[in-house]
Specification:
Blueprint (H helix, E strand, L loop, with lengths): L9 H22 L3 H4 L8 E13 L5 E4 L6 E8 L4 E6 L20 E6 L4 E5 L4 E3 L8 E12 L11
Antiparallel strand pairs: 1-8, 2-7, 3-6, 3-8, 4-5, 4-7
Length: 165
């Protein structure tokens, strides 16, 4: 058991390196600036993205995962390895406590989920705080995915540190 990235498997290491590069591009594209500036660091060498936890999931017919998020995670990454059926992921409305407030009217689909359909070879990246779930798998075979919790790793001489480190 343990972290998949601790196993020393060359294939997992290559895939993780690619995921980290894509996550960096994700942040830089969304922010429109280099990673170090996006997180408030001075130099490019001050910060990098690192995999803090990684695992594989195997879903068989009917398997699912309840709504959850990834605490202390900058970016959650999911790569779909194999499946004959759909690799669906549902994203919940990110507005805080929206499911507990009912003024009698709803705005902009509040409280609704968005289902993302994908297949093997797809990488999904989302903020760690994004609540998501896996709907029941309906394939006859298995659905295999690999997931990573990614965080910002700062150089030792950088005073800026994320909360919780």
């Amino acid at each position: 058991m343990g972290n998949l990235t601790d196993w020393g498997d060359p294939g997992v290491d290559r895939l993780t390196s690619w995921v980290l590069a894509m996550a960096r591009t994700f942040v830089e594209t969304l922010r429109g600036e280099p990673l170090h500036r996006a997180v408030g660091a001075t130099r490019p060498s001050d910060v990098r993205l690192a995999a803090h936890r990684s695992w594989a999931s195997i879903y068989r017919g009917g398997n699912h995962h309840a709504p959850h998020f990834h605490p202390n995670t900058a970016i959650a990454a999911v790569y779909y390895v194999a499946s004959a059926g759909a690799c669906d992921l549902e994203l919940a409305d990110p507005r805080a406590n929206v499911e507990f407030f009912d003024p009698g009217i709803s705005f902009a689909n509040e409280g609704r989920t968005v289902r993302i359909g994908s297949g093997p070879g797809t990488l999904l990246l989302m903020p760690g705080w994004m609540k998501h779930s896996v709907p029941p798998y309906e394939g006859a075979d298995v659905r295999i995915s690999i997931a990573w919790n990614l965080a910002y790793a700062f150089s030792a001489d950088v005073a800026l540190q994320p909360a919780g480190d």
